[in-house]
Design goal:
single chain, alpha+beta, five-stranded mixed sheet, 4 helices, 21% strand
Length: 213
């Protein structure tokens, strides 16, 4: 075999090996990818929709999918900071779509999605591997600062009951003989006194006339 024939054989063999290697590597390297969303990223809506739908290039595995919605331009940082999640429940896989329900009455603002799914080849992909999905609500419910809880007011102190004052002590002058003779009327006492005086006067008169005679 000539040198040119040997070189041609080696070249063809190397090409076959290279093509076979690329053929096996392509399925492993080409994971499913995010292809779009509804609402589309960067769009504005007057009122927040009932849900957000993320669409991928192939069917997703039903397990391991999760998503959060934050009023922030950086959903990963918002998730790490523990900010409020505006998703209304667990995300649901439907073929090539990930459906994320939203809470009612989202305030005006820009929202972004932090998501994670398992692609059809078993590899997990997340927000960090694609463009951030975000949308803006222009006429939602205005954000309201939380109203501080009013401290309970102490109950009015009940005034102590008035102490009954004792009856006034009667003066000595007001005390009559009736106090000394309980149960006897004052009229009877005065009648006895007057009767006694009259009786003494009569006896005096009788004694005087008796001496003259």
């Amino acid at each position: 075999m000539s040198a040119s024939s040997r070189f041609r054989s080696v070249f063809v063999g190397a090409a076959v090996v290279l093509l076979a290697t690329l053929g096996f590597a392509s399925p492993a390297a080409a994971h499913d990818a995010l292809s779009g969303s509804d609402p589309a990223t960067g769009t504005s809506v007057e009122v927040a929709p009932a849900q957000i739908t993320l669409t991928f290039t192939a069917d997703l595995m039903p397990d391991g999918a999760e998503a959060q919605v934050f009023a922030s331009a950086d959903p990963v940082a918002a998730s790490q900071a523990g900010e409020r999640d505006w998703a209304a429940g667990d995300a649901v896989v439907d073929g090539m779509s990930l459906i994320i329900p939203l809470q009612e009455g989202l305030p005006v603002g820009t929202y972004s999605v932090n998501w994670r799914v398992v692609s059809s080849d078993g590899h997990a992909i997340s927000t960090s591997s694609a463009e951030i999905i975000s949308f803006t609500v222009t006429q939602g419910v205005p954000a309201v600062d939380p109203v501080p809880t009013a401290e309970p007011t102490p109950e009015a102190t009940t005034a102590p009951a008035a102490t009954a004052t004792p009856d006034a002590t009667p003066s000595p002058e007001a005390t009559t003989g009736a106090d000394e003779l309980p149960g006897v009327s004052p009229i009877v006492i005065w009648a006895l006194v007057i009767g006694g005086v009259i009786l003494v006067a009569l006896l005096a008169v009788i004694v005087r006339f008796a001496r003259r005679s």
